[in-house]
Inverse folding.
């Protein structure tokens, strides 16, 4: 924790109003920090898990999320920390754990991170077996003219791998531009539980992100998907992830799919 606290002091004067070191929290940062630090984003994707927090080498690394002065709170299903960036931890090897407010250990795993690299940590599974999925985020080089998207599968008990597509809607002709046909962009084939696809470049437009069971017959544009959501992409220079989460059901709902900005 000595390294983390020192890092907070270094960046505090640069971010006094919007960043900082909360009690029991790692600073939320978007710019490079000390060379011996790694970036991690934490997700709570176990649908039936009690409120909990992530700990790295026995130090809490997710925020209090509390309106009380001293009352420590934990995060619940669908929560993300930090909300719009990455936290920082010392690079190297260590033990990542998820604990309840009563100090019950829900899951743990040994991790190794490389300095200045980005990662996502997910609490996944069910009450029978909670786990931590730890995935390296191979972020593309910053480019203010492009949009990138990837997919992560964290749905517990899912009985199949998935194929994922971004379907860009057709664009009608205007006075200044010709019509564009609908486009089908693959975000990955055969993606198993606790795994991800690669970041893929997408053009601005209206998209439907569709998830299909691998090995089945389907038409990406016309077939009914296992899960899907729709978005309009307009902000260039952004990097996102669509995720499926929670526990498998044959008829999943909107809480089982979401997207998040990585950069």
């Amino acid at each position: 924790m000595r390294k983390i606290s020192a890092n907070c002091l270094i960046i505090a004067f640069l971010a006094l109003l919007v960043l900082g070191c909360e009690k029991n929290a790692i600073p939320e940062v978007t710019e490079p920090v000390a060379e011996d630090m790694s970036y991690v984003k934490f997700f709570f994707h176990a649908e039936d898990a009690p409120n909990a927090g992530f700990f790295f080498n026995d130090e809490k690394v997710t925020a209090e999320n509390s309106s009380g002065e001293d009352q420590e709170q934990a995060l619940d299903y669908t929560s993300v920390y930090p909300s719009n960036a990455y936290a920082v931890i010392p690079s190297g090897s260590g033990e990542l754990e998820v604990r309840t407010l009563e100090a019950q250990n829900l899951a743990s795993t040994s991790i190794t991170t490389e300095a200045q690299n980005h990662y996502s940590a997910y609490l996944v599974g069910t009450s029978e077996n909670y786990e931590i999925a730890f995935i390296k985020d191979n972020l593309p080089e910053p480019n203010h003219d492009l949009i990138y998207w990837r997919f992560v599968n964290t749905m517990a008990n899912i009985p199949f791998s998935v194929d994922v597509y971004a379907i860009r809607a057709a664009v009608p002709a205007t006075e200044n531009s010709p019509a564009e046909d609908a486009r089908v962009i693959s975000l990955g084939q055969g993606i198993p539980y606790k795994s991800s696809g690669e970041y893929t470049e997408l053009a601005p437009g209206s998209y439907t992100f569709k998830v299909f069971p691998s090995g089945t017959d389907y038409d990406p544009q016309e077939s009914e998907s296992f899960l899907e959501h729709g978005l309009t992409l307009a902000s260039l220079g952004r990097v996102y992830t669509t995720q499926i989460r929670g526990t498998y059901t044959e008829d999943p709902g909107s809480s089982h799919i979401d997207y998040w900005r990585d950069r």
